[in-house]
Write a structure and sequence with these properties.
By secondary structure, the protein is an alpha+beta fold. It is built from 24 helices and 24 strands. The strands form seven sheets. It has a five-stranded mixed β-sheet with strand order 2-11-10-3-9. A five-stranded antiparallel β-sheet has the order 14-13-12-16-17. The chain is globular, with a radius of gyration of 29 Å. Bound molecules: 2-(butylsulfanyl)adenosine.
């Protein structure tokens, strides 16, 4: 959608915007471009912070000149009021569903049937994934997104335009007029990627809410949420795959792309939509279609989102029209369903596990079953409400589903198979580890052990601290933490840095090499970036993103002691609850003592906040490469900071100056390609400070 030259021009425009020289139109133009890079190409050219900066500039200008606001301005995505009720709206064309096939023979039979209807020697099939989300239809009129609706009963659905606008990959405007189109209705699927689903569920669990069963439910539920801001947080995606209505401008010739399905996908992609244009394949025999579907099924787990089959469509729109539809589905398309990833098993018992924050999670133990190549024997039931809702009992035959790398879950018990000897699941009243009474905070679905010295919590906190996204001490994984804890070698987080290696060396399986690895991994963790330490502390509601925000807001972790709840709320994405939790953490003497011990042990506690110094280099970023003729690298870097400049560690579009010395290598090459970077010598650099 953007050519190389346009991309370059838009990048330099972005730089201009940052210098306050841009018009409202230019700001919008640039924001749309960066949204496209981020949401459609998954290849952002700027950081979130820079995007926010440009966005704020636009917001400010629009506030000053409300008459200049357009419905497709990037600021218009944000719904500032709650959805009260969803109005039912009729689709321009009924949203039919697809006929299902489950094996190659079904497809071969369909191909035969089609050939009796269509009098052609060859049918080209376009075959693409069947996305497992929630169907939507979008209407664009005069190039502007006019309406987004759910499928409903196929004839009419709910108008969910405001919620659809929260999906970054849905363009608020698109130049359909360039293709001679006045009005168009497009169908597609709203999805949540597996990665986002996991992240979202982890956040829900952290907040004491019931987890969502699978990405499909997460997407479908999102569309009907009252609060558009909450929809935005779910980070949904929309993939568009079918044009269901089109009105051509009377004065124009319809573009020939819309004569085929593949062409339509190409047009939609060129207009900035996400489509299966790259995944689809044009095939000329049904045998090739079968082979393609089978091959795709094997790749299913590698995709970032869930698919439950393939959809095979007659590529030629004229032929589609000739084959027509039944009352329920078109004759020109067929779904090829993949094998269900469900199995039945028996629920043998329920165990209760205490997490890092004291949450007590019921875990179902089932007779081991194979689903999609994995043996499942243990399934989280999330909380007491889930057990009650599903009316699960010990001894029940249960349907278990495992979708891709999404954690398995119990769909339902088969109550028609009950024999009468199934027993109720009794949720404990006391912590299964420390025996303290459990509490259920108001509004939460989760029972908690509130004894912060409860052994289960202490161990889980250490496991979290060493985990991959926190301090990443790989040699000290979960099983070693549990082992060392049970042997009293490790009592708490600071204990990691004063382990008795001689005692460990006496354990079976700990030879000199593994002791060495362990020591090195622990030693290396001392240099980790501050946000990893903050994340590793396991402060409630503080995920990786918030930890990064905090890391960037201080020059030293202990500064967080001085932040009021209001100060914290000024930071990106920190609301009341999160702010309060951080405040409480840094106003607890035990926590501060722990941080002091960690700092004394040599763990990095320095943050990434840029010094507030104002100087000749304020607002400019620098990177040094090669051997400088007179200055030591560390002195040169200090000059930058002392003069209010900022150091970067890599060459990117955020870099203003690359200062080069002798034998500068790849950084210089890279900087030469990025035209916006000024490449200067040491003496030019010194001149900047002196003049
Ligand atoms: S085409 C008139 N293409 O599957 C037919 N549908 O079970 C238009 N779906 O209702 C639909 N991926 O919501 C089409 N690539 C794809 C699809 C797809 C998922 C959904 C769609 C449909 C349902 C049928």
């Amino acid at each position: 959608m953007y050519t190389k030259d346009q991309t370059k021009a838009l990048q330099s425009l972005t730089n201009k915007l940052l210098k306050n020289e841009a018009t409202i139109d230019e700001l919008r133009h640039a924001l749309r471009f960066h949204e496209y890079r981020y949401y459609i190409l998954n290849d952002p050219l700027i950081t979130d912070d820079v995007y926010d900066l440009i966005y704020k500039k636009l917001e400010k200008l629009e506030k000053e000149n409300p008459a200049l606001i357009t419905p497709d301005s990037p600021t218009q995505r944000v719904g500032n009021s709650l959805n009260t009720e969803f109005i039912t709206v009729a689709h321009l064309t009924p949203m039919l569903s697809l006929e299902n096939s489950y094996n190659p023979q079904d497809l071969i039979d369909w191909d035969k049937r089609l050939r009796t209807i269509l009098d052609v020697s060859q049918i080209t099939y376009s075959t693409e994934p069947k996305f497992d989300g929630a169907s939507i239809s979008l209407i664009y009129e005069n190039d502007i997104l006019a309406r987004g609706a759910t499928r409903g009963d196929g004839i009419a659905g709910d108008d969910v335009t405001t919620n659809i606008k929260q999906i970054g990959s849905v363009p608020l405007s698109a130049k359909f007029s360039n293709y001679g189109i006045d009005k168009i209705e497009i169908r597609g699927e709203v999805l949540m990627t597996k990665e986002n689903f996991k992240r979202y569920n982890a956040a829900l669990a952290e907040e004491g809410f019931a987890a969502l069963a699978n990405p499909r439910n997460a997407a479908a539920g999102s569309l009907r949420m009252k609060d558009p801001a909450a929809v935005r947080k779910r980070k949904l995606e929309a993939i568009l795959y079918h044009i269901s209505y089109i009105k051509i401008n009377e004065k124009k010739q319809p573009d020939k792309l819309i004569a085929t399905h593949a062409g339509s996908l190409q047009m939609l992609a060129a207009l900035g939509f996400r489509t299966p244009v790259n995944e689809k394949k044009l095939l000329h025999t049904i045998e090739e279609v079968v082979a393609f579907c089978k091959a795709f099924e094997l790749k299913r787990d590698e995709l970032p989102y869930e698919i439950d089959g393939m959809v095979i469509k007659v590529n030629d729109i004229e032929l589609q029209q000739q084959s027509g539809s039944t009352a329920h589905h078109p004759r020109w398309a067929m779904a090829y369903k993949f094998k269900a990833r469900q199995a039945t098993s028996t629920l043998t018992k329920v165990e209760f596990q205490v997490g890092r924050t004291g949450s007590v999670t019921p875990v179902a133990k089932i007779e081991p079953v194979h689903i999609g190549g994995v043996t499942v024997s243990s399934i989280s039931l999330f909380n007491a409400d889930v057990i009650a809702e599903k009316d699960l009992r010990i001894g029940d035959a249960v349907i278990v589903e495992r979708a891709g790398d999404v954690i398995p879950y119990i769909v339902k018990p088969l109550d028609e198979l009950r024999k009468g000897n199934e027993t109720k699941i009794i949720f404990p009243k006391n912590c299964p580890v420390c025996n303290d009474p459990l509490v259920k905070p108001e509004g939460e679905a989760v029972w908690r052990c509130v004894n912060i010295n409860c052994e289960a919590q202490v161990v889980e906190r250490i496991i979290h601290f060493v985990s991959k996204d926190a301090m990443d001490i790989r040699s000290l994984g979960e099983s070693n933490v549990r082992k060392f804890y049970s042997l009293h070698f490790l009592k708490n987080i600071p204990g990691i840095y004063s382990l008795n290696y001689e005692a460990i060396a006496k354990l079976e399986g700990f030879g000199p090499k593994s002791i060495d690895n362990l020591r090195t991994a622990i030693e290396n963790s001392k240099k980790q970036n501050l946000h990893r330490l903050i994340f590793g502390l396991g402060i409630r509601y503080v995920g990786e993103a918030t930890a990064k925000t905090l890391g960037k807001s201080v020059q030293n972790i202990f500064e967080l002691k001085n932040f009021s709840i209001e100060d914290l709320q000024q930071l990106k994405d920190i609301g009341n609850k999160v702010g309060e939790s951080i405040f409480n953490f840094f106003h607890n003497d035990d926590n501060i003592k722990m941080l002091e011990i960690l700092a004394d042990a040599g763990i990095n506690v320095a943050g990434d906040k840029i010094g507030n110094k104002e100087g000749k280099l304020s607002g400019q970023t620098f990177l040094f490469t090669g051997t400088l003729p007179t200055l030591k690298r560390s002195d040169a870097e200090k000059f930058v900071e002392d003069n209010g400049g900022r150091l970067l560690s890599t060459v990117s579009n955020n870099l203003n100056y690359l200062v080069t010395g002798d034998s500068a290598g790849s950084k210089l090459e890279k900087a030469k390609k990025l035209k916006s970077i000024k490449i200067i010598t040491e003496s030019e650099f010194l001149n900047m400070i002196q003049t």
